[in-house]
Structure prediction request, 474 residues.
Amino acid sequence: MPETPQEVLQMIQDEGIEIIDLKFVDLPGTWQHCSFYQNQIDEASFVDGVAFDGSSIRGWKAINESDMSMVPDPKTAWIDPFYKEKTLSMICSIKEPRTGEWYNRDPRSIAQKAVDYLKTTGLGDTAYFGPEAEFFLFDDVRFDQNEHEGYYHVDSIEGRWNSGREEAGGNLGYKPRYKEAYFPVAPTDTMQDIRTEMLLTMKACNVPIEKHHHEVATGGQNELGVRFNTMIQAADDLMIYKYVVKNVAKKYGKTATFMPKPLFNDNGSGMHTHQSIWSNGEPTFWSDEGYANLSQTALWYIGGILKHAPAILAFTNPSVNSYKRLVPGFEAPVNLAYSQGNRSASVRIPLSGPNPKAKRLEFRCPDATANPYIAFAVMLLAGIDGIKNQIDPGSPLDVDIYDLSPEELSKIPSTPGSLEEALEALKNDQEFLTSTGVLSSDFIENWIAYKIDAEINPMRLRPHPYEFMLYYDV
Prediction:
């Protein structure tokens, strides 16, 4: 695939491509795009960018300063598999056309600043990230909220709630039991072919792939495994991942959601995030003698993650729904502790054997409602703060945390119980972000205000259906 603007332009000519689709991510983490005829893209486009209206993008510009530029990254060029006409897609970062500077609210530019900051510290030159995003595939979804009603309804051929339903051709059973849908074979797993197509489609889009499987929850919970990558490329890969999953699902007459908790009383969907720092081609998290073969650098990194976790979650778990997943009893990591090979800890050290290059940590709290560019940057900055200030993560917790007594649990810090609590934590703990120059106070204030105005306050105004169960007859 092309690496330079010249190679992209040559590819456009050689393959007779007429449409170029430029994609960029908005503040909440959703792709936006605009398609251009091929003569609108030249070498200058890769430096100065292509103009668009930033005032129509959530959380960005006012209408009186709306002109912005999207600058395509030539290394992200791929043929989009979902368009009828052969279309070249590229992922963009955003520039201020007045100053030529990268826009300080552009998530991809923020991620680049975080990588640049890592290099200035001398602690490393490369950050590797590997997100594991889970999702549900439903056959039907309906929801609405207005002045006199509010409801949602989701359905799946695999839903255990359909074990007694009359179905065309007869109900054949094979509905996975609640919390028991991990790794079943066909015919219980009905989604092998669709996951395979998703995985191979991602490969065609230059995403490094590894595996796929059914996940724990009934009703069609799945996961595709992609290989780790450098931080910005890992975020790019995740955006392609979500794009491919949703569009292949639509092709099969299904709908995909990365919503953390779409089903009551079964496991939610997380995005466990593996991460490590390297320097001069060598891993910095490995030790021959440390706990779980972790270096002191890695332990301090964990200390930074655990110390700043409540503030981090304002970005890694940024929806009201996120905190319906972060509750005990559903494999969700609600306790801020670390352990090797222990999935009940919020920071897990995967058992990678005697391989220094595989040594990493896995932060298990995040979910895929996160904007990956911002989430990865914030986790990296928290880890760097831990290393610079030698933050002790305490002793590891090599037990099933869910089996601890209330007295023992009371000694372990826990994740925030709501988005409001996470935003309050961010308000009170942001120096590890702002002192680096990566995130500005303006960005954080805008993020908090956006989340309160667009999500928290609208939720406060609306009755919940379950409130009628609790209070209607009082």
Notes: The CA atoms of residues 285 and 298 lie 5 Å apart. The first helix runs from residue 5 to 14. The two ends are 66 Å apart (CA to CA). The first strand starts at residue 19 and ends at 25.
